[in-house]
UniProtKB/TrEMBL annotation:
<feature type="domain" description="Protein kinase">
    <location>
        <begin position="1"/>
        <end position="221"/>
    </location>
</feature>
<dbReference type="InterPro" id="IPR050588">
    <property type="entry name" value="WNK_Ser-Thr_kinase"/>
</dbReference>
<dbReference type="GO" id="GO:0004674">
    <property type="term" value="F:protein serine/threonine kinase activity"/>
</dbReference>
<dbReference type="GO" id="GO:0005524">
    <property type="term" value="F:ATP binding"/>
</dbReference>
<dbReference type="InterPro" id="IPR024678">
    <property type="entry name" value="Kinase_OSR1/WNK_CCT"/>
</dbReference>
<dbReference type="Pfam" id="PF12202">
    <property type="entry name" value="OSR1_C"/>
</dbReference>
<dbReference type="Pfam" id="PF00069">
    <property type="entry name" value="Pkinase"/>
</dbReference>
<protein>
    <recommendedName>
        <fullName>non-specific serine/threonine protein kinase</fullName>
        <ecNumber>2.7.11.1</ecNumber>
    </recommendedName>
</protein>
<keyword id="KW-0067">ATP-binding</keyword>
<keyword id="KW-0723">Serine/threonine-protein kinase</keyword>
<dbReference type="InterPro" id="IPR008271">
    <property type="entry name" value="Ser/Thr_kinase_AS"/>
</dbReference>
<keyword id="KW-0418">Kinase</keyword>
<keyword id="KW-0808">Transferase</keyword>
<keyword id="KW-0547">Nucleotide-binding</keyword>
<feature type="region of interest" description="Disordered">
    <location>
        <begin position="246"/>
        <end position="279"/>
    </location>
</feature>
<dbReference type="InterPro" id="IPR000719">
    <property type="entry name" value="Prot_kinase_dom"/>
</dbReference>
<feature type="compositionally biased region" description="Polar residues">
    <location>
        <begin position="260"/>
        <end position="279"/>
    </location>
</feature>
Amino acid sequence: MQTHHQLERLYSEVHLLKSLKHENIIKFRNSWVDDKNKTINMITELFTSGSLRQYRKKHKNVDIKAIKNWARQILRGLHYLHSHNPPIIHRDLKCDNIFVNGNNGEVKIGDLGLAIVMQQPTARSVIGTPEFMAPELYDEEYNELVDIYSFGMCMLEMVTCEYPYSECKNPAQIYKKVTSGIKPASLSKVHDSQVKQFIEKCLLPASMRLPAMELLKDPFLLTENAKELVVPLQFPNLASNLVNLTNSEPHPMETDPNSKKPSVNSCPKSLSDASQLSSFETETDKFRLRGDKNDDNTISLTLRIDDHCGPARNIHFTFYLDSDTANSIAEEMAEQLGLSNEDVSVVAGLIDNLITKLVSNWVPPVSGLSSLANHLCQSVEATAKESVNSDISADSDAQSVLITVSRNNSDISLMDSCSINMSISSFFSQSVAEKDQSDELKLELDAIDSQFHHCFQELMRMREEAIENAKKKWLTKNRVSAV
């Protein structure tokens, strides 16, 4: 089924490219299917200067006239897409997806793989690159004006040579700022008032945001004088901006992990590159997690949080199978989104469950097992302590589990200070009897006991898989050496 869905999406992109005819939309030449390699090969026109982002890296000083010229062309391309009936929304507009011929200043919008033909007044799926995503995208109620917001972020990057929200360390921080209406720090570095005002118009709330045709009539794009033709755009602290541009890469939440790849004359698209096609979903009353396998190492995750006191929140991030653990990701999100320790355990459990469904033989990185076990034990102990009245002592007798990971082999030893067969509920049974606690407390303790044993079984499964993988690797290595 995965191959079928991937083919379906790639065919959709090919069909869309074939139907679009505009001077500011990348031209489609030809395509063919390579059944042997499972790829669809597409030929588009060649852009000698690569993407706008690459061009700005190479060319430090660009005239304001050139910036305006690029802006007009991008807006014309967007107007063409949005004028279709129903409108076509790009949904992933960024400087990486806009291509340029430096000799004549021509720019064209490309990479329409995430574009959607909007069949209803508002679209509902959430997709794109976090730094360029409009706030309403997270609410799953949006229209073609999300592309105008992304265009504003493109303008900001073109002017400052800095990736939007490069001050953020992770996708959760970006989400928090975007949904709170906090603009990128780089906007304060735009000293030209006209340029800044134009960018701010593009970043207005959806209800106030102007469409592409109206922005083309803006005085900023209409006026050009002799001074603008020769004076390069002035950058604040140019040296630091260039460093920021080099280091500012799309955050892991980005749905297009190969976004830096420029359009070339022959561009094979592997079926395994199509994201959001092999998917699985799991949920609780408060959380819903969807996962889409991008390739052999990355999975795009979307966590929906249904807050009873406010609107639902959607957070997007990428899970790297070779380095991430469910617990590390859940804790990172908790820090930024204000989740409780209990929520961290629930989210980590959802992530583990979903990853296991998508990648049946997945084993978390060995470096993450120790912290995972520590978190599980802390979570169980903390929950147990909260469940018992304050006059019940739970200090030195509390059960603890120690995990040690040997660096020399894959063996993982599990030890506990008491007998491993001693359950949390039995530990508290004497105190509960003495205090004559209610049946409700007993049920809660039973739930804790069940949670602990589930966690322990999961760790044992991970241990066995890690040992088996180590043995297989060792046998393979010895066979190769023997040959």
